[in-house]
Amino acid sequence: MARNRDDIDFARPVRRILIAAMAVVLALTFLVWRIDSPRVERFRAAFIDRFVPTFDWAMVPVTKMLGMVEGFQSYARIYEQNQELRRELQQMKAWKEAAVQLEQQNAKLLAQNAVRLDPKLTSVSGVVLADSGSPFRQSVLLNVGSRDGVVDGWATMDGLGLVGRISGVGRTTARVVLLTDSSSRIPVTIQPSGQRALLSGDNSALPLVEFLESPELVRPGDRVVSSGDGGVFPAGILVGQVAQGSDRRLRVRLAADYERLDFLRVLRSHPAEQLQDVGALIPPAPEAGEAGSSAPLTAPAALPRPGGNG
Question: 197-229 b/e with 16+ CB inside 10 Å = b?
Answer without folding.
Answer: bbbbbebeebbbbeebeeeeebeeebbbbbbbe
